Amino acid sequence: MPEARLTRDPTGDVAPDFTSAAFEEVRQAVMERNGISEEEAADTLLASWTRHQEEKVQRWEQQQREDEDQELNVDQPRDIRPANSPAPSSRPASPPPVPNQNRGRSPVSPARSQGRNLSPAPEKKRKINPIQRGKQVATARLPQPSAYALKKLRNFDYVELWYFTEKGCEEAQNGAISAPTDVFTLSRVAGTLALKSLDASTASRAVIPDEKLSWRDVSVAQKLLLHHMKEQGWPEEHVSTLATFFFRLEYHDIRRTSSLGDDVIVRYQAEIRREWHRLITSPKEQNVFDIGDISLDRLDEIERRLIKQDQMEYTAR
Predict the structure, then answer these.
(1) Does residue 232 sit in the same domain as residue 262?
(2) Could you tell me if residue 275 is inside a domain?
(3) Which range marks the domain in which residue 286 is found?
(4) Which residues does the annotated region (Disordered) include (predicted)?
(5) Contact partners, residue 193, CB within 8 Å, separation at least 6
(6) pLDDT tens, position by position, 42-79
(7) Which of 60, 228, 292, 308 is the most exposed place for a label (fewest CB within 10 A)?
């Protein structure tokens, strides 16, 4: 597919300040994706912009040369007259108009022409950590959820437990291996267009809502969720309260006394945790309910709802 025609001279374009607050989110995405410092992330963005800028300047100059060649190659209209028309004047014909050499080209000042010699910012060599002799690898590999899930936690937002399940972490690992590390798209950040990593803030298409998870998935995922909540700076009180919530659900009597026990617990977890997240991040200051205090009334209501749902499905068969 041919590239779109440029409509203006890009020679004088000035690179954005990738170290400014407007690009903080973009730098964070590059840092997480490439494992580099904030300064190196800003340099990476500048180098990417510079390469793209040089390509645009080259395209603009090529476009101008093609326009000039096309004007020079246009045939002059032939003089076609009827046989009885008067003879042409004996005066010498006026020379054909000389094509305007500067047509379509913006005047370039010396300062702007220097911009054509832009060169990519030198890429800094990534630092490598030292080796500690005698220190062994961890006995178990800690699964790593996606950058999207970690960003949600860092912003104290609700995130589905699926991202912390075995399948969710496996997808994140496969994506981190196969995805390119320097692909960006334009995004509006704080009212300013900025480069943004394509995959850093993208929800997975395979995500499963909490209500549809098995209890085993919930039990496995909650441990990793609590670990990363601590890593992302959540207050100890909130992490501890949520840990109590999962612990009490794990050992609740309804899992033994009801044939729908696990389904009830999974649905309760999904609904209550979503409500809790909505309230703790609400702009309205308020005291949020203790999520670790399991509501028997809410469990009973969910169980009745599931029983009714099963009856309706059985009747519809």
Answers:
(1) yes
(2) yes
(3) 213-317
(4) 33-139
(5) 186, 187
(6) 888 888 878 878 888 888 888 888 888 777 765 445 44
(7) 308
Residue type, 277: H
Return the CA Rg of the chain.
Answer: 32
CA–CA distance, 108 with 115 (Å, rounded to integer): 10
Within 130-238, strands assigned E span 184-189, 192-197
* CA atoms in the 13 A half-sphere facing the CB of 113: 6
The dihedral of CA 205, 209, 213, 215: what is its sign? positive
For residue 85, is it within any domain? no
3-state SS string over 66-93? Answer: HHHHHHHCCCCCCCCCCCCCCCCCCCCC
d(CA 201, CA 183): 13
- Domain end among 153, 176, 205: 205
Number of residues that make up the chain:
317
Does 55 lie in the same domain as 172? yes
What single-letter DSSP state applies at residue 4? P
Residue 150 lies inside a defined structural domain of this protein: no
Residue 79 in domain: no
- Are residues 48 and 176 both part of a single domain? yes
Based on the domain organization, do 221 and 311 belong to the same domain? yes
In order of 35, 74, 96, 103, the CA distances from 77 in angstroms are 65, 9, 11, 21
Residue 212: helix, strand or coil by DSSP? helix
**Amino acid, res. 183:** V
**Pairing assessment for the beta strands 184-189 and 192-197 based on DSSP bridges:** antiparallel
Q: Which amino acid would we find at residue 221?
A: A
Tokens of 247: 């612990």
Count structural domains, the chain: 2
Please tell me whether the overall predicted TM-score, pTM, comes out greater than 0.85 for this model: no
The candidate with the shortest Cα–Cα distance to 56, out of 15, 111, 98, 103, is: 15
